[in-house]
Amino acid sequence: MTVQSDSLVHVYTENGITTVTLNQPEKRNSLSMAMLERLSEVFTALEADEECRVVVLAASGKVFCAGHDLREMREQFNRHEFQQALFRQCAKVMQQVVNLPRPVIARVAGVATAAGCQLVASCDLAVAESGARFATPGVNIGLFCSTPMVALSRNVSRKHAMEMLLTGEMIGAERAEQIGLLNRVVDAETLDETVYSLARTIADKSAYTVKTGKTAFYRQLEMPLEQAYEYTAEIMASNMAACDAQEGIAAFLDKREPDWQDR
């Protein structure tokens, strides 16, 4: 068991599952520059952490994440270089989530708006309590949610993404599940049970195979159909040469549990 905690983020690893918790409920877990930099450090460390097999991204308090820290942004109104650096740092963190070789599951309780909604959309899987709500409300304050749009439009259909972006209206968890932003919606009382059951199911797989599959999934999405099949055929051929593929096939045929070596 490994525990790291500070005023920004709490990190806890047990049985191969690392929970990364946004830890500023008094600031609605907003993505300030300091929070983004800390998250980047955490995800960089997790890339090399062999103890970690699955990541659960959670938040303390009643708000999952309210997006960027508008007070901080207002203080920097006249510093274009700060605004550029802020959004680039946010983009870096979102891409780190996607590129992390471990699956990331968002555990959503409360509200996720703007860049907070972007964070949920960037995760590989997302489970929310029934009372959770989501929005990309930048249009309401004259600041279109352009960077959240990147993750949102890659998870839900164009028309649903545009409706959220153009209206800025809040949607409930059930609607978020219907349009593809969430995998599951559960009662608040069973949120942890559902999230960690899902995490344990994935953690029990070959880490090598999961890493291979996650990487290939996102790469093929951006390819034309023919190129995607060429790429994934080569990935599968290479995967077949791996120790875990051979062990998994043998175990299946021999009707026994596989002994993963993660290679």
**What's the CATH topology name of the largest domain?**
2-enoyl-CoA Hydratase, Chain A, domain 1
Strand content: 15-25%
What is the strand arrangement across the widest sheet?
Answer: 1-2-3-4-6-8-11
Total beta strands: 11
The name of the CATH architecture of the largest domain is Alpha-Beta Complex
What's the CATH superfamily of the largest domain, by name?
Answer: 2-enoyl-CoA Hydratase, Chain A, domain 1
The proportion of residues forming helix, as a percent range, comes to: 40-55%
Unreliable sequence segments: none
The helix-strand sequence is EEEHEEHHEEHEEHHEHEHHHH
- Which value, in Å, is the CA radius of gyration? 19 Å
Let me know the average pLDDT.
Answer: 96
Number of helices: 11
By helix and strand content, what is the structural category?
A: alpha/beta
The first-to-last residue Cα distance is: 23 Å
User: Major sheet: size, sense and barrel closure?
Assistant: 7 strands, mixed
CATH class of the largest domain: Alpha Beta
Overall 3D shape? globular
GO molecular function, one term: hydro-lyase activity
Keywords: Fatty acid metabolism, Lipid metabolism, Transit peptide
Protein name: Enoyl-CoA hydratase domain-containing protein 3, mitochondrial
Organism: Marinobacter oulmenensis
Keywords:
263 residues, globular, Lyase 2-enoyl-coa Hydratase, Chain  A, domain 2, 11 strands, 4-stranded mixed sheet, 2-enoyl-CoA Hydratase, Chain A, domain 1
Describe this protein's structure:
The chain has 263 residues and is of the alpha/beta class. It has two domains: 2-203, 2-enoyl-CoA Hydratase, Chain A, domain 1 (Alpha-Beta Complex), CATH 3.90.226; 207-254, Orthogonal Bundle (Lyase 2-enoyl-coa Hydratase, Chain  A, domain 2). Helices cover 49% and strands 17% of the residues. The protein has eleven helices and eleven strands. It has helices spanning 33-47, 70-75, 80-99, 115-122, 146-153, 158-167, 173-178, 191-203, 207-221, 225-240, 243-254, and strands spanning 2-5, 9-14, 17-22, 54-59, 63-65, 104-108, 111-113, 125-129, 133-135, 171-172, 184-186. The strands form two sheets. It has a seven-stranded mixed β-sheet with strand order 1-2-3-4-6-8-11, with helices on both faces. A hairpin with a 2-residue loop joins strand 2 and strand 3. The relative contact order is 0.10. The model has no long low-confidence stretch (mean pLDDT 96).
